[in-house]
Amino acid sequence: TMYVLFLLFQILGAVILGFGIWILADKTSFIAVLQMSSPSLKAGAYILIGVGALTMLMGFLGCLGAVNEIRCLLGLYFTCLMIILLAQIAAALVIYFQKETLKVELSNIVVDLIEKYDPSNEDKRNLQDAWDYVQIQIACCGWTGVKEWENNEILRNKSNTEYPCSCSNRSKDLVEGRGFCNLEDPLNGTATSADWPVREQGCMDGVEQWLKDNLGIILGVCTGVAVVELLGMILSISLCKNIHSEDYTKVPKS
């Protein structure tokens, strides 16, 4: 049982490490939009990588301490586990109590991205492609709705006679899936988003629904991680006590 638990920590550390690397490497999802726009999420990804590496190291040290009956290693293992567990609880509390602030920050990030969206800007190509991918996959347009695209600098200069291809409800526009498409029948004067052949639903509802659909899985994983960490803490204390008892019995009686 002891070795299975330490093996679980190695796997757990690898999963956390992999998740952090995925957040940094992902270029084609909503996570990519956040990661490239929000310094806090990028910092969070580096923290996950650090926690994952530390968890793997702790699993190794814990196993080493148990096999060789080294109390200081088991004590270090217990301390690090407690710190990781407390950090996870603190992070969960911050997310819970700051969720409205995070929602506003997220909204500002996406609205700013839409207003400054420019297909010719190669510096922001990955970020813009990630947002196009989100709009295609969730079948949405804008954050709260399609009207946000009317504030795009390029579309305004073209009197809104073009529209974002990734918002289109026409399959031929989605083949390219990025940049702007031309209205087939340009109107005299200025067009509006109501004249575009696009989806009207904002992506905010789709993202919130995705989170609700996957909330059970997220909570289950977090609970499982916490249980494994608690078991590791209990095991390390038990092993420390056993080593202490054995050391005491080895003391020669006078």
From TrEMBL:
InterPro entries attached to this UniProt entry: Tetraspanin/Peripherin (IPR018499), Tetraspanin_animals (IPR000301), Tetraspanin_CS (IPR018503), Tetraspanin_EC2_sf (IPR008952)
Main location: membrane
One Gene Ontology term, aspect cellular component: plasma membrane
Pfam families in the cross-refs: Tetraspanin
Official protein name in the record: Tetraspanin
Membrane topology type: Multi-pass membrane protein
Subcellular location field: Membrane
Transmembrane segments: 5-25, 45-67, 74-97, 217-240
Domain of life: Eukaryota
UniProt entry keywords in alphabetical sequence: Membrane, Transmembrane, Transmembrane helix
Keyword Membrane: yes
Family the entry assigns: Belongs to the tetraspanin (TM4SF) family.
SUPFAM superfamilies assigned: Tetraspanin
Organism from which the protein derives: Chloropsis cyanopogon
Record carries keyword Transcription: no
